[in-house]
Design goal:
Strand order of the largest sheet: 8-9-7-10-11
Structural class: alpha+beta
CATH superfamily of the largest domain: CBS-domain
Shape: elongated
Number of domains: 2
Length: about 220
C-alpha cells in the first residue's frame, strides 16, 4: 500500500505571509490539523500544526496581546513566524508502513507529500488509520480469528489451506511480529461467515492444528488462551 492510495489530495495550504488569525479561522471551520506552508514559488518551506496555532493564541483569561485592536501583536503574526522549517515529508510512492513509523517516531500528526518540488497532498494519522481499517478488514462483516505461529515459511500457508478446506472465505489477512514471544508472529484473519458450521465448530476444528488466541464475532471477543 502506497501513500498515493490514501493521502488527502485537496490540501489547504498557507503562504509564508498568511495571517495566523486567518489560519485559526480555517482551523475552526474545517477542523484541519496541519497546514503545509508554501513560498511565493509554490515550494514547501514549512508546516504549521493546530498546536502551533493554539500556542500562538492569547488566552481569553489572561490580559495582554489582546485581539481587539487592528494592528500589532497577534494581527502581525504570520505562518512564517510559527511554522516548523524543513518538515519531514513523504512521496506519493512511499509505503504506508514507513509513514506510520515516522509519525510514531517523531510524534507528529501528518506528513506533506512532495513529488519533485511540488506539493501533491498530505498523509495524516487519520489516513493511516483508514488504511489500517481496510487492511484488517474491520469495515467488513464476518469473524476475526487471531493465531500465533512460528515466524518461518509454511505455517501461514497451511493455516490458509485449512481455512479453505473448511469452506471458509477469508476477506483479509494481517500479520505482525509477536513482541512477547520471540520467533513467533500473529496472524489476524477475517472470514466471511462460517458456512454450514457454527463459529464454535470452526474454532474447535482450527484449534486441533493451530494456536488460536481469540476470535471476535458480532463485536464480542472470546479469549481462548
Amino acid at each position: 500500500m502506497l501513500v498515493r492510495d490514501w493521502m488527502t489530495i485537496n490540501v489547504i495550504s498557507l503562504g509564508v505571509n498568511s495571517s495566523v488569525l486567518d489560519a485559526a479561522e480555517i482551523l475552526r471551520e474545517k477542523n484541519i490539523r496541519q497546514f503545509p506552508v508554501l513560498d511565493g514559488k509554490g515550494a514547501l518551506v514549512g508546516i504549521v500544526s493546530d498546536r502551533d496555532i493554539r500556542d500562538a493564541m492569547p488566552s481569553k483569561f489572561i490580559p495582554g496581546d489582546a485581539v481587539d485592536g487592528k494592528s500589532g501583536g497577534l494581527y502581525t503574526l504570520t505562518a512564517g513566524d510559527i511554522m516548523t522549517l524543513d518538515p519531514i515529508t513523504a512521496t506519493s510512492d512511499t509505503a504506508i508502513n514507513e509513514v506510520a513509523e515516522l509519525l510514531v517516531k517523531h510524534k507528529i500528526g501528518g506528513l506533506p507529500v512532495v513529488d519533485g518540488d511540488q506539493l501533491s497532498g498530505i498523509i495524516t494519522q487519520a489516513d493511516v488509520l483508514r488504511f489500517l481499517c481496510a487492511a484488517s478488514g474491520s469495515m467488513r462483516s464476518g469473524t476475526q480469528l487471531a493465531f500465533r505461529m512460528e515466524a518461518r515459511p509454511g505455517p501461514l500457508a497451511r493455516l490458509l489451506a485449512d481455512l479453505r478446506d473448511l469452506g471458509l472465505t477469508f476477506s483479509s489477512v494481517f500479520t505482525a511480529n509477536d513482541a512477547t514471544h520471540p520467533g513467533f508472529r500473529k496472524a489476524y484473519i477475517r472470514v466471511e461467515g462460517s458456512g454450514e458450521r457454527s463459529v464454535e465448530e470452526v474454532v474447535d476444528a482450527l484449534q486441533q492444528h493451530h494456536t488460536l488466541l481469540f476470535y471476535v464475532n458480532e463485536g464480542v471477543t472470546v479469549d481462548l488462551v
